[in-house]
Amino acid sequence: MSANPINLTTIFTLQRPRVKPPAFQSPALLSHLFFILREAIVIGMALNCGIVGLPNVGKSTIFSALSAAPAEAANYPFCTINPNTGIANVPDSRLDTLSAIFKPERSVPAAVEFVDIAGLVKGASKGEGMGNQFLAHIRETGVIAHVVRCFENSDIIHVNNRVDPESDIETINVELALADIETLLKRRERAERAFKTQGASEKKAAEAVLAALSKIEAVLENGAPARSAGLADEELTAVYDCHFITLKPQIYVCNTDEAGAKAAAAGRPDPLVQAVRRRAEAENSEAVAICGKFEAELAGIVDADEKKAFLEELGLKEPGLASMVQACYRLLGLATFFTAGKDECRAWTIRAGDSAPRAAGAIHSDFEKGFIKAEVYGFDDIVKYGSEAKIKEAGKYRLEGREYIVRDGDVMFFKFNV
Fold first, then answer.
1. Which of 61, 74, 162, 304 could lock 79 by a disulfide, CB 3.0 to 4.6 Å apart?
2. What is the extent of the structural domain holding 396?
3. Which of 311-325, 341-355, 390-404 has the lowest mean pLDDT?
4. Tally of structural domains, the chain
5. Positive or negative: CA dihedral 334, 339, 343, 345
């Protein structure tokens, strides 16, 4: 937050027209679509991460490095209008270990969906820079990755003609908060009308909505995100239909140059990166530092030894994007279980807290419908004992039923009947 809080209510003036959400169009998403749709319907939170920021901060370059879907990257504002959607693998050393033990024909990592959303500008909440459409795209994501420019380069235009990460963050956060205030005012009007005209049960529900909205309004007016209001679960449920943008989890992605990436890897981040990290700490959020240009070049290298040497030039053990993907995966509330064998070792994505039948449904809907039981052991068990036979000898191989809550890192085999 800035030293002098901005009262957003006093500068909020314009209503925004409704925008139809875009349909999924990429064939690459079809294999992932069942899981996404099921979770979106049942849990109500999109299982993807929206990449946002001002124009020309490197969003599309980072997106291109993240996924196989090449985003349009150009040195002018709004080169991305319709959001690009891609699937990025989630780096997980546990899958590498399982593959080394079982030596399968193929190894398949978990994945998370990323959406490259066009650059927002000051006035986006009033429709500036196609802001209405872009804000609608953000509402459809589960987590926000806010890319902040942390490098100087006179050849790349900055929309404000200066590199100032704190100011850039303020611009984006204010616009998102303004959009939420518009949503809040409309929802409060409906709740107040229901409180005055409906029956006892509807009045009680409206009262809960109004109480939660009051808490959110207090923080939004001071330029803080709705997630800082500290809402209880029942309050979050009451205002779920508002789809507040600033209620979504957020991480900051510092897009720096190669020198900045080297400094961050060595534990000596430059002042621009430090400014973003201070902001993230104040918001109880996370910040990761990467060099988007370097990551995009790295993504194009196929040879493992060449890739390792390229990483070592910057003093990195793994791509900087790995920490970004893992952070988004955590913020989405996701967990991983594994299936392992000679044919395939695979990491499967589920919600943290999912039961065994729901985990089975991540593989195929028939597995969930006809679930009988699951054979389970922990990843640490296979590392310790070296084989499933030894795990069984040690009494660590378990049979679990419908009520079992899957743990992150479980290795599972499902029995079902349909």
1. 74
2. 353-416
3. 311-325
4. 1
5. positive
